[in-house]
Design goal:
Layout (H helix, E strand, L loop, with lengths): L1 H48 L7 H16 L4 E6 L10 E5 L5 H6 L6 E6 L8 H8 L2 E3 L4 H16 L3 E4 L17 H9 L2 E8 L1 H4 L11 E7 L5 H6 L2 H19 L7 H15 L1
Parallel strand pairs: 1-7, 2-5, 2-6, 3-4, 3-5
Antiparallel strand pairs: 6-7
Helix pairs in contact: 1-2, 5-6, 6-9
Length: 282
Amino acid sequence: MKAILICMAYKILKMRIIIKYIYNAVLWSVFIIDAVVLMIINLAVFAVTYPFDTRRKVIHAFSYYWGLHYLWVNPLWKIEYLCRANIDTKKPYVIVSNHQSMFDICVIYKIPLVFKWVSKKEVFRIPFVGWLLMLHGDIMIKRGTTQSTKEMLKKAEAWVNKGCSISIFPEGTRSADGKIHSFREGAFMIAKLNKLAILPVVVEGTRKMLPTRSGLFGGCATARIHVLPEISAETVASLKTRDLSDMLNKIMLEEHKRMVPERYLSPQGREKESENNSRNQS
């Protein structure tokens, strides 16, 4: 009997693995075919609108569709968008968000602002993604070089003068453990230089869709986008860059802990919580 149960468990596990790889093969096929078709359309849209669309609003609208349709085609994925009322659509911001997955880029397009990404040089080398960033007018930065930072600030100022917001992941890279880590100062330098308010955005759930450094998509997942109250331009001007960075980090970390408190528990804390849940259930 024991041998039969083990055999059945093994077959179920094997079937789940097979289904997982079929699921990923289908999704990757859809995404790659879509990327080729949409890039061709995007190039045509860019060629037609470039002479008069100085903010590249049409390209941004196309990017909105491109990014979000990847979530729409998968019935296992959902988006929860909260506190949209915290956004004043009539003015530009520096948008700062935590970074868990490549899908963060897709879900942040839900924010109803025309914005430009600040992204590291390596991302611009990724086929389709990098090409789209260039068409979109996004800002490249090479980390660790003063000259690149100066060029980034100059390009950001040019877009802000046209009425665009700037979006940046202040952690500088995707979080390996899903927690929010310390912030770099680039986003806050842009805000102070251009006298802009800062719009904090906390994202959760995208890590389940495509885990960091994984080529395999996840199953059921809900991406949650929480738009927090803005940090006014007056507050930005009154604080030093480092203090501003630390303040935003604290605000966003507290919100993320509220969303997923279990992720920030120590191993001992998790064990204690598990024991308490067991007692409550009994």
